[in-house]
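Aim 2 progress update. The chain analyzed this quarter is reproduced below.
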Amino acid sequence: MDVIRQGDVWLVPIREGECIGCAFSARLTPEPVAGDVVLALGEATGHAHRIRAPHSVLMAGEGGNRVMTVEAPAPLTHEEHGTHVVPPGEFHVHIQRVHDCLAEAARQVVD
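Predicted structure tokens:
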């Protein structure tokens, strides 16, 4: 399975047998979800990268690290990008970051 990229959101598949706990320094906890799973919300536009699936769970760890479990094929939608069908499995959820030279720090891309 390949990486799924939609704008500034990347879903990186977790291979069978890969240790999820090894990837993060803290225990993962489920994020509360009411309806769709929103992976990223655009600060400038209000548009959202969302999984439209009732059987998806997003887990959060320390430092913004997140893992998503998808139980059945689910569409990943966004108002300005094409829809991707996410296959069942577990994925590391990454939001693209850029280095801000003035602040001398990395920050999330503003959508």
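The longest strand covers residues 89-95. Residues 20-23 form the longest helix (4 residues). These observations will guide the mutagenesis experiments scheduled for the next reporting period.
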